[in-house]
Write a structure and sequence with these properties.
The chain has about 220 residues and is of the alpha/beta class. The protein has one domain: Alpha/Beta hydrolase fold, catalytic domain (Rossmann fold, 3-Layer(aba) Sandwich). The chain contains seven helices and eight strands; from the N terminus they run E-E-E-H-E-H-H-E-H-E-E-H-H-E-H. Strand 1 and strand 2 form a beta hairpin. The chain starts with a strand and ends with a helix.
């Protein structure tokens, strides 16, 4: 099992859930929450990466606030302090880089998918691979010129909110010659990876996307 850790975050500090692998592969991954906060599901996802050999850190970007209410989650998403989130993510990257001695990976879901790309752009020299699960956030602006990592994207077929970003992301990545690979999973809905939400979870798509993610990290980190 993982543990709560506190780490430096650009002049402040941040807490997160750190999952340590029993059989380390020497690589580290930042796991970034959905709009619900750092809940048990996100911690369990970090544990899955640890089971695959990765040192996995899930930073608490809401600083202790977790909700199950979609209305409250929407308010928390819109109230996100982007500047503080950037500091927290930078601190997360620096901690894992120091712990592993190499570039780290980022992966996030929904809001966290956008923040995965945001972190990869803002920490270009320290992020070696970026994974986006149906990412979107209306307040996030990306420093595209800072991106160095290849990007793997997982998208649901029925997801107007997140899929509106695909043309923009594609244009920006193509325009800068950045490597990317986007997959859309037929018949799926937003948040298909989240197995605590049976109304949207798709076990087959979740399994395939995770296999692709692990292969992507193994190749690029």
């Amino acid at each position: 099992m993982g543990e709560v850790v506190r780490f430096a975050a650009q002049g402040g500090d941040c807490e997160g859930w750190l999952a340590r692998p029993a059989s380390p592969n020497g690589r580290g991954v930042i796991v970034i929450q959905e709009w619900w906060g750092l809940n048990d599901h996100v911690k369990e996802v970090a544990e899955r990466f640890a089971a695959a050999g990765y040192l996995a850190l899930a930073p608490d970007l809401y600083h202790g606030v977790v909700t199950k209410s979609p209305d409250e989650a929407g308010k928390l998403l819109m109230a996100l302090d982007v500047a503080r989130a950037e500091r927290d993510l930078r601190g997360s990257v620096q901690k894992l880089k120091a712990d592993t001695g190499r570039k780290v990976g980022t992966v996030g879901f929904c809001m966290g998918g956008a923040l995965s790309l945001f972190a990869a752009c803002a920490n270009g020299d320290d992020v070696g691979a970026c994974v986006v699960y149906y990412g979107g956030h209306p307040k996030i602006e990306f420093e595209w010129d800072g991106l160095r990592a290849p990007v793997l994207g997982h998208w649901a077929e029925h997801d107007d909110f997140a899929n509106a970003n695909i043309p923009r992301f594609t244009k920006e990545l193509l325009g800068r010659g950045r490597g990317f690979d986007f997959h859309t999973y037929p018949g799926t809905k937003h948040a298909f990876f989240n197995d605590t939400r049976p109304e949207v979870h798709d076990a087959a798509a979740a399994k395939l996307s995770f296999e692709r993610t692990l292969a992507f990290f193994a190749e690029n980190l």
